Amino acid sequence: MQVDVLNSKGAATGRTVNLPDDVFKIEPNDHCIYLAVKQYLAAQRQGTSKTKTRAEVHGSSKKLHKQKGTGGSRKGNIRNPLYKGGGAVNGPKPHSFSFKLNRKVKDLAKMSALSYKAIDNKIVVVEDFNIETPKTKEFSMVMDALRGDNRKTMLILPEYDANVYLSGRNLQNHQTVVLSDINTYDITNASMLVFTESAANRFVDEEVEITETESGSADAQTL
């Protein structure tokens, strides 16, 4: 898959990047995408909801009246769940909502999400650019030249760059991430993916590495 490399003003540079077809042109698996997004969102839940049981609420533990002879029902203490202010029965307790997902499923989901973006022509490669000091205005001009009509953009860098990250941190509908940190949810949530040229070449370099190590002793991962 060939993608033109653009400069910071959105004009073509004449260079192209060949992105591997086994990552960006596979048959997308919708169920794997669903599972990966579900796992990501489940892991974001705090799981701190809690109610007090009858052993934890405030109140006397004295029996309200004797067991027999009153003509009324049997009663324990004031912390009984049937009374106002009593303990809750089967209430929520703090717990984690996260669940395990196999690595191959997560990789397939990520490649499926990238393939959908490639099908929709929502992948842009921009030449590497530097920002001397964090400047949101300067960074915004670059993104506006590449964004087009797309609302949400995600800039993908090969390595962490503090100046670039700080420049785009306050922009609405924008996210800057490192290539090794991208996930299925962020890919599907973005309207357009903007790879820097160095980040896009990582796919090409790893593709060459996989070809050279086809002995079967090592399981090379593309993502």
Tell me the layout of helices and strands.
Elements lengths: L1 E5 L5 E7 L2 H4 L5 H15 L58 H17 L3 E4 L9 H12 L5 E5 L4 H7 L5 E5 L5 H6 L2 E5 H16 L11
Parallel strand pairs: 1-3, 3-6, 4-5, 4-6
Antiparallel strand pairs: 1-2
Helix pairs in contact: 2-3, 4-5
Would you kindly provide a written description of the structure presented here, covering whatever features stand out?
- The chain has helices spanning 21-24, 30-44, 103-119, 136-147, 162-168, 184-189, 197-212, and strands at 2-6, 12-18, 123-126, 153-157, 174-178, 192-196.
- The chain is an alpha/beta fold.
- It has a domain at 2-28 and 99-212: Ribosomal protein L4/L1 (Ribosomal Protein L4, Chain: A, 3-Layer(aba) Sandwich), CATH 3.40.1370.10.
- A six-stranded mixed sheet has the order 2-1-3-6-4-5, sandwiched between helices.
- A hairpin with a 5-residue loop joins strand 1 and strand 2.
- The longest helix has 17 residues, at 103-119.
- The radius of gyration is 27 Å and the shape is elongated.
- Residues 208-222 have low confidence and may be disordered.
